[in-house]
């Protein structure tokens, strides 16, 4: 909202390839914003809805499930479904910021030789956390659906 690039003290004060990579990744998001990268715009627009859905979706689902009010339970599932959609839309945003960070650091000569191997490891591992977040959101969503439809494993 304030168009400020913020870094934790650990990243800002640490002279390491990992810290430089993280800072460059965040700069990649700033470049996305400046260029009007449409997946970032969609993700940003979804934030208020996802905050609402991630908190209330499970509560509404459980109330509907416990009280046997199926439409209420489905409403909770749909609200929480926004979390999974958000996680899916986040993937191209994060992978693109990582790609931009790598290009920037290598093309400008900030990272050379073996440092590039470390940079790739750090940024690729960070990007994979978003894949894990998507898997978690989808598995939770499916769990709710299975609870509601009685499709539990016996």
Structure description:
With 154 residues, the protein is mainly alpha-helical. It has one domain (42-149). Helices cover 81% and strands 0% of the residues. It is built from five helices and no strands. The relative contact order is 0.14. The model has no long low-confidence stretch (mean pLDDT 92).
Topology, please?
Elements (H helix, E strand, L loop, with lengths): L8 H4 L4 H19 L2 H29 L3 H38 L7 H35 L5
Helix pairs in contact: 2-4, 2-5, 3-4, 4-5
Low-confidence stretches: none
**Residue-averaged pLDDT, rounded?**
92
Radius of gyration: 19 Å
Taken together, the total number of domains comes to 1
- State the distance separating the first and last CA atoms: 48 Å
Biggest sheet record: none
* Proportion of residues in extended strands: under 5%
Q: What class, by secondary structure content?
A: mainly alpha
Q: How many distinct beta strands?
A: 0
Q: Given the structure, what is the number of helices?
A: 5
**Could you give the order of the helices and strands?**
HHHHH
Identify the overall geometry. elongated
Helicity, as a percent range: over 70%
Key words describing this protein structure:
single chain, 154 residues, mainly alpha, 0% strand
Q: How would you sum up this structure in a few lines?
A:
81% of the residues lie in helices and 0% in strands.
